[in-house]
Amino acid sequence: MNHQFAIMWDCHGLEAVQKVPDPADRTFAILANKPLPQLPNLNHWELRARYNPQRHYEIYIVSATDGITADDICDMFEASPQTAADTIRRLGTVFYSDRVQEDRVVIR
User: Fold this and answer.
1) What gap in Å lies between CA 31 and CA 59, rounded to an integer?
2) What is the arrangement of strands in the sheet containing 58-65, beginning at the earlier edge strand?
3) Based on the structure, what is the number of domains in the chain?
4) Percent of residues in the chain assigned helix, strand, coil, to nearest 5
5) Measuring CA to CA, which residue among 18, 21, 11 is closest to residue 85?
6) Helix intervals (H) in 3-105
7) Burial, 103: exposed, middle or buried (Cβ in 10 Å; 0-12, 13-18, 19+)?
8) What is the number of other CB atoms lying within 10 angstroms of the CB of residue 106?
9) pLDDT digits (tens, 9 = 90+) for 22-54
10) Distance CA 55, CA 72 (A)
11) Residues 63-108: pLDDT tens digits?
């Protein structure tokens, strides 16, 4: 079974990794009268990104197989940030991107 993570980084590196709870987990928490698992506050993340355009934020949602944790994703970014970002871009779904594109450069 796969699960999802919300991941945010900018030109300075990884900023946030948060697991997206399975809807079934939310349902079972309600039925058991337990606290609901927290969803990533993507609206807050997007506002942060929009008000700091100089940092070129990227926010992705990515599926991962069981056994992959948020710590594993953090370790991947620490070991090789460029490879990690390229992998997330290739496998994930973009939620927000202000990535610098080479064709935007006016003076080289």
Assistant:
1) 32
2) 13-20, 2-10, 58-65, 93-97
3) 1
4) 40, 30, 30
5) 11
6) 23-31, 42-50, 70-79, 81-91
7) exposed
8) 5
9) 888 888 999 999 998 888 999 999 999 999 999
10) 24
11) 999 899 999 999 999 999 999 999 999 999 999 999 877 666 556 5
Amino acid at 36: L
Residue 19: beta bridge partners?
5
Instruction: Answer for the pair 58, 97: CB distance below 8 angstroms, yes or no.
Output: yes
Quote the distance between the C-alpha of residue 33 and its chain's center.
29
Give the domain extent around 72. Answer: 2-104
Cβ pair 73, 6 in contact under 8 A: no
CA-wise closest residue to 73 among 58, 88, 54:
88
Radius of gyration of the chain (CA): 16
Long-range contacts of 41-45 (CB under 8 A, 24+ apart): 42/6, 42/95, 45/6, 45/8, 45/16, 45/96
Residue count of the chain:
108
pTM of the model: 0.85
